[in-house]
Amino acid sequence: MISKEAANPLTALSPLNxxxxxxxxxTAAELSPxxxxxISGYFWGLSQTPTAAAVAQATxxxxxxxxxxxxxxxxxxxxxxxxxxxGVAQEVATFLNQHNIENQxxxxxxYKGKNLAKETYVVLVASTHGEGEAPDDAVELYxxxxxxxxxxxxxxxxxxxxxxxxxxxxxxxxxxxFDAFFKRLGAKAFVPRIDCDVDYSxxxxxxxxxxLEQIQQALTTSAQxxxxxxxxxxxxxxxxxKQNPFSASLxxxxxxxxxxxxxxxxxxxxxxxxxxxxxxxxxxxxxxxQNDPELVSQLLSTLGLDGETLVDVDGETLSLAxxxxxxxxxxxxxxxxxxxxxxxxxxxxxxxxxxxKDKLRQYAAETQIV
Length: 370
Fold this sequence. Notes:
- The protein is an alpha/beta fold.
- It is built from 15 helices and ten strands.
- The protein has helices at 4-7, 9-13, 18-29, 33-47, 52-59, 84-98, 139-144, 173-184, 201-219, 232-239, 293-303, 320-326, 335-345, 348-353, 357-366; strands at residues 74-79, 103-107, 121-127, 157-163, 188-189, 194-196, 249-255, 266-271, 310-313, 316-319.
- Helix 13 crosses helix 15.
- The longest helix is centred in the middle third of the chain and has 19 residues, at 201-219.
- This is Flavodoxin domain-containing protein.
């Protein structure tokens, strides 16, 4: 006679007990295929290293007290079109790790909306695409939170970081929308939403301090859970960002379209050795450029300004010429620039123009700064 347990070969051969199997099955049911694939590799890697207890004893990085009350975990969800939101989420994760606060970073496209009902702290970092639209990987979550399937979220403490460009009409619209969705579902903002412009480094630093204060208050009644040690290469990869780029060498740059083709497509190989970075499909490549010195001189001459005048740029004292060449966009006008210049110059023609958004956008698109 065969028992029910023996009838299932997976259960019979498993080194896990019934409770562990049930926990594993429940967790797996909530994960996407991509997350399951990652976990399979992660667990395999753990199996090739010393036991968790040995690692904890050797490094002092992990608390294995099974009776301690876990601290609130912060889930960082990023909705990114070009990678900026992902970079900000990773930057915040690094900051939380430095303060021994458990967290996880997940793409909006890999996150199941129903899991919001199980979260305590969520930080959503969202860029805005097109005419105020959510990034492609966030559309499913965006629509879910507006649907009847969305759960009540009275237990949830949330924060929203919106990324955008104030020269566009729908500035940080996706972040504003997600903020409204959270409020409608009963969630509480533990810090106010911030809408970040193109240069957002200082805003993120200020926000991190405010968020940390609120989260640490919740930790006063909970035991802190320190994250698992991160490999050296992973830690380095997180530290490189738009504000702290890795200087790589260009090994190969070859045109791969025909001589008579109207398109110019290039095969490029970049040496990332020593960075811990891996360039993968879906990643975006940023090019840091300098403005033409002649254009800087022309702008200064037109405005009657001295290029040697000292100005403050993010806490650093620079000459006006250096600031214009290395830190500001002076090659194309935008609605915000036209608006600010109209207010500064008090030009009657421009002041009238900026009252009409359609004409303002058209004028900015067709007009150079100099």
